[in-house]
Amino acid sequence: MLSRSRIEEGDYVLILINRKRKWVIRVDRSKKFSSDKGILDLNTLIGAEYGSEVPLSTGIKAEIHRPLLIDFIERGFSRATQVIYPKDAGYMIYMSGVSSGSRVLEAGVGSGFLTATIANIVKPHGKVYAYEIRKEFIELALRNLKMLNLNEFVEIKQRDVKEGIDEKDLDAAFIDIPDPWEALNNLYQALKPSAPILFFFPTINQVEKLYEAIKEHKGFSDLRCVEILLREYRVTKGMTRPSTRMIGHTGYIVFARKRKISP
Ligand SMILES: C[S@@+](CC[C@H](N)C(=O)[O-])C[C@H]1O[C@@H](n2cnc3c(N)ncnc32)[C@H](O)[C@@H]1O
C-alpha cells in the first residue's frame, strides 16, 4: 500500500460521502466519477492530499482517502463466488500464525478475497501457493490481486488439491473447498510438522464430516470449531444501540494442528 501523502494519476482512492456511499476507484485524469450525490472530475484529485475534502458538482463534499485492504475487499474487488469476509479472515489469519515470509497453502481461491488477505500478511518475502480448479475464477482473482500488486506474492495453479499438492514444508494452510476430507492426506503431506490448518465451511454437516475424517486419519489434533458473529453499533448520544441489521451467517471455521502419526 502507498505511503505517499499526495494523490497521483493511477492511484486507487476511496471516495467517501457517507457510511453507505463509498467507492474505490482509480484516478484517471480523463474520467469523471458520478454518483447520486454529484459528479467529480478526477483530474481535480491529482496533487490533492489524501484525507482531504473535495466538492462534487452539487456542492456536496466527499472525502478522498487512501484505501485500506478492507476497502478493496468491500468496495473494489469483483466477486463471482461466496467469499470469506474480514470478520472470518481476521480470526483465520490470527490462528494460522502466518507472518511476513511464511509459505502458505490455499485451496479454493474463488474470487481471491482470502488470497489477498493472506498475501498482504506474508509479503514481501513469503508466498501463497493457491489451488483452484476453475480458470475463470483464477482470472478474476488475479484481477482483484493486481489492484493491490499482491499478485506477485501468489502462485495460483489450476489444480484439484485432491489430485496432489506440489509444495512441501508449508507453514500453514487455508482451505475453502466443499469436501476437504477427500484431500486430507495431501494436505497433511504438504504441511511442515506441527503446522496449523484452517478450514471454512458454510454448513455444519461439513464440519462433522471433517471431524470424522480427521479422527480416522489421525494426523491432526487440537481441533476447534468457531463461528464469528460481528455486531455493529449505531452511536448517537443518549441513543446508542446495536444496528438493526446484522449478517446472520457466513460460515464455520475449523482450526487444527498437524501432529505426528504414531506407528
Ligand atoms: C467458496 S469459493 C472460495 C472463496 C475464497 N475463499 C474467497 O475468499 O474469495 C470455493 C472455491 O473452491 C474451488 N474448488 C472446489 N473444489 C476444489 C478443489 N478440490 N481444489 C481446488 N479448488 C477447488 C471452487 O472452484 C471455488 O472457486
* CATH topology label of the largest domain: Rossmann fold
Largest sheet, if any? 7 strands, mixed
Give the CA-CA distance, first to last residue: 48 Å
Radius of gyration: 21 Å
Q: What is the string of helix and strand elements?
A: EEEEEEHHEHEHEEHEHEEEE
Low-confidence stretches: none
Write down the domain tally: 2
DSSP helical segment count = 6
CATH class of the largest domain: Alpha Beta
Share in helix: 10-25%
Shape: globular
CATH architecture classification of the largest domain: 3-Layer(aba) Sandwich
**Beta-strand percentage?**
25-35%
Average pLDDT number = 97
Bound molecules: S-adenosylmethionine
| Biggest β-sheet: strands ordered side by side in the sheet | 9-8-7-10-11-15-12
Number of strands: 15
CATH superfamily of the largest domain: Vaccinia Virus protein VP39
Structural class call reads alpha/beta
